[in-house]
Task: structure prediction
Amino acid sequence: MASSSSSTLVTLVVILCCWYGGCQAQTEVSAVYVFGDSLADVGNNNHLGLSLLKADFPHNGVDFPGHKATGRFSNGKNSADFLAEKLGRPTSPAYLSIPSSSNNTDEFLGGVNFASGGGGVLDSTNKDQCISFNKQIDYYSSVYAALVQQLGSAQTQAHLSNSVFALVIGSNDILNYVKSSSANKLKNPPQQFVDSLISSLRGQLKRIYNLGARKFVFIGTGPIGCCPAQRHQNKTRECSVEANYLSVQYNKGASSLLQEMSEELSDMSYSYFDTYTALLEYINNPDAYGFVEVKAACCGLGDLNAKIACLPISSYCSNRKDHIFWDLFHPTEATAERLTSTAFDGSVPYVYPMNIRQLVAM
Ligand SMILES: *[C@@H]1O[C@H](CO)[C@@H](O)[C@H](O)[C@H]1NC(C)=O
Ligand SMILES: *[C@@H]1O[C@H](CO)[C@@H](O)[C@H](O)[C@H]1NC(C)=O
Result:
């Protein structure tokens, strides 16, 4: 039977992988540095007094250890937590939660998370409500300078070369474009807009590389048009074609950019995770992945629980493990865990040219 020969093949591949070290506990990474938006924010926005883009109130955190809201836009842990767990490390703390003192070297050596809800590739995205990607890199630059001052360049570079730099950015730029006026879209057509994002991203990734990063984990944008907030705007509750198209184009640009960079910079490696394909697969075949509700948010009010966000006055579902979406924009803990596992151990078409386990073993 075909199934027995394919399982023989799987066994063979597994044995070969183990033989070459792929199944061994990977070499330990020195630290995890995280950049991005609300998909990876572990509390930076709690420190932004004026921002409305916060998640430091119930029902966020209902499944987090201690059942408390921490600033994560989730019922529980997010991708930054699961990535750290997979790497056998504690979750890197939010940069703004680290007390400023004359010597933060120990904290900085342990890894730092700069991600901020609402953050985008463009400075104009949710301006004054979040830490833009550029500002996150500014903060990282000061971390880098502190490390070099304390440890010297060579030791700092050795540490950073063995660290993982995880990035999840772009969704907010796309969401803002989708809701912008048709006059703006005429002036700045979709592909021109995406090209401008990729052009900014090029400079940003290059800058992080120039500050010592060598192992990049890039988490592509998901099927943004399928989040409850977007479906809610469609009479038949279908996914927004416009938002999904922009996400696909952005991801194409980002993955080509990474490939170009790794060809140009021989000591740079990366793992690109195609969130779009993976999450759409869960949405289209929920049974196969243990999901039941793929359209409505768990927490919120109104149609699809997407008319009103997840606020203390909102209701939330009891079956959180079988919902793809926690609130009108964000995945549940269950979704984040499944996505991170696939990024860590999966293969094409979900993750390439290598998965995260292979990246850290390099
Ligand atoms: C700062 O911390 C690092 C790491 O613990 C240590 O090696 C260094 O001596 C400290 N420097 C100062 C000025 O305290
Ligand atoms: C809803 O989405 C479908 C599929 O993208 C589209 O054909 C339809 O025009 C949309 N309806 C509205 C009211 O936007």
Notes: Confidence is low (pLDDT under 50) at residues 1-26. The pocket of 2-acetamido-2-deoxy-beta-D-glucopyranose (ligand 2) is lined by residues 234-236, 238, 241 (CB under 6 Å).
